[in-house]
Amino acid sequence: MRLKQIKLAGFKSFVDPTVVPFPQNLTAIVGPNGCGKSNLIDAVRWVMGESSAKHLRGDSMTDVIFNGSTARKPVGQASIELVFDNSEGKLVGEYAQYAEISVRRTVTRDGQSAYFLNGTKCRRKDITDIFLGTGLGPRSYAIIEQGMISRLIESKPAELRIFIEEAAGISKYKERRRETENR
Ligand code: ATP
Ligand code: MG
Questions:
Q1: Does some domain include residue 136?
Q2: How far is the CA of 13 from the centre of ligand 2 (A)?
């Protein structure tokens, strides 16, 4: 499964609707300091359900909304849509049949967050559920950030196990068992 494009609007420095395509052979995004490279990673993490403002380099969850500049007024809402190519049918379950999966999240200034899967409103959990076992989640290994390799090397066996279970595709079954036991 491949991330095909990100659509951003009102998110951090991306105030106007912007489409960032990811062609198949992309290896790097370069640009001057402050141009928004890390904001793109924050965008992916945010849509995947990141609920800690600190992990998005902010103080509160509404800090992801464009908060104005000398030339522009702040806006009232942030929206990000990730479009995945699922033509190889890597996702299991009801979404396996779609060649393209769109995942969208919006947030308004009053802190109301909404999630959408292929245009239909859903819960945060519906999104984390379908990506469990793919390596892409708000804290999963599809995104390797600064310091993460040394954290992995130094982690305790129990912490390391979480990553191995995700890579082996076991985490989604463990999550389901946990849910069933809590019912
Ligand atoms: P570097 O090369 O230094 O790592 P970068 O390309 O990764 O830079 P980012 O951290 O993605 O840069 O972007 C930082 C820019 O985003 C800053 O100019 C900051 O003012 C802007 N920014 C972050 N949050 C908001 C927000 N809520 N509203 C407006 N601008 C924002
Ligand atoms: Mg950066």
A1: no
A2: 12
Residue nearest to atom 24 of ligand 1 (CA): 12
pLDDT digits (tens, 9 = 90+) for 172-183: 888 889 989 998
Write out the residue range of the structural domain in which residue 11 sits: 2-131
Query: Could you write out the three-class secondary structure of 53-90?
Result: CHHHCCCCHHHHECCCCCCCCCCCEEEEEEEEECCCCC
Q: Which ligand is nearest to the CA of 13?
A: 1
Model-level pTM?
0.90
Neighbours of ion ligand 2 (CB under 5 A): 38
- Is the minimum distance from the CB of 36 to ligand 1 under 6 angstroms? yes
Phi, psi of 114 (to 5 degrees): -135, 145
